[in-house]
Amino acid sequence: MERASGRRSAAAIRPHWEHRRKKNRFYEQLNTAVNATPFEHQLFELGDFNARVGLDHDIWRGVLGRNGLGKVNSNGIRLLEFCAVQKLAVTNTVFQQSNKLKTTWMHPRLGHWHLIDYVIKRQRDLRNVRLTRAIRATTLWSDHRLVKMSIFLLVKPVKRHHRVRKHLIASLFKRFTTKTKGVKLADLKTLKGRCKNFENVYIFTCEPTSFVIWKVLAHGFSRSAFGSSSNN
Q1: How far apart are CA 49 and CA 149, in angstroms?
Q2: Do you know which InterPro entries this protein is assigned to (predicted)?
Q3: Alpha carbon distances (Å) from 5 to 9, 13, 18, 85, 124
């Protein structure tokens, strides 16, 4: 009887340690992925974490919102500790709404609804999140409800390369030559050489402001070639 009981206890402990080892490996990989994401980029963590985070907002300030649900379990504490270290926030607990719009999974035996599917964001990007809620649509391929998050994203304009065109340089040189009647030929050649060297310059700007930059550069070229004008 003692041998049989010893075998049973060993067989019960082995899956427990195996489950804990898989959980540690999962959070190690998740921590590596979060650290590899640049801080200025948007970070989204979505999925079934099989964790109940509870509603203790005072202890987990910044991680949990004021609208949590249910009691916390061991997986929830592990998730909350990870979010506290990485400065992440559980967006499901931020917005005030009914419990039927928060819960995502029903226990098959007890029939209780729980919140175990989360959308996690960085705390500094939490102000851009508009709403996180569960969709009560029928999903035949899963026993979990879908979670939808509405977020405001500000896309910065891409800076494009604008090559200086030759006909613009020619028109710029012609404009200067018509207004300089008493200038020496050597000075005109100097200005023309400067304009030729200017062909390989790239301007990192948008189209509305390019004319202003052209005007400033042209004024600098003319002052270096002909000198400053006496009539102001």
Answers
A1: 17
A2: Endo/exonu/phosph_ase_sf, Swc5/CFDP1/2
A3: 6, 12, 20, 42, 53
CATH 3.60.10.10 at 37-151, yes or no: yes
The crossing angle, in degrees rounded to 10, of helices 74-86 and 2-36 is 30
| Run of H or E residues at 130 | strand 129-135
232: pLDDT strictly greater than 70: no
Helix or strand (DSSP H, E) at 59: none
Dist. CA 132–CA 213, nearest whole Å: 46
Q: Which residue, among 226, 229, 162, 231, has the nearest Cα to 199 in the 3D structure? A: 162
For residue 177 the two structure tokens come to 């030559």
The CA distances from residue 154 to 151, 157, 181, 195, 229, in Å, are 10, 10, 53, 39, 47
- At 130, give phi and psi (nearest 5°): -90, -40
- The model's confidence at residue 214, banded by pLDDT at 50, 70 and 90, is low
Domain residue spans in the chain?
37-151, 162-226
**AA letter at 6:** G
pLDDT band at 153 (very low <50, low <70, confident <90, very high): confident
**35 Cα distance to chain centroid:** 13
Percent of the chain with pLDDT over 90: 43
- pLDDT tens for 50-60 read 999 999 999 99
State how beta strands 162-163 and 202-203 pair. Answer: antiparallel
Q: Can you tell me which residue has the tokens 């928060």?
A: 102
* Max Cα-Cα span within the chain: 118
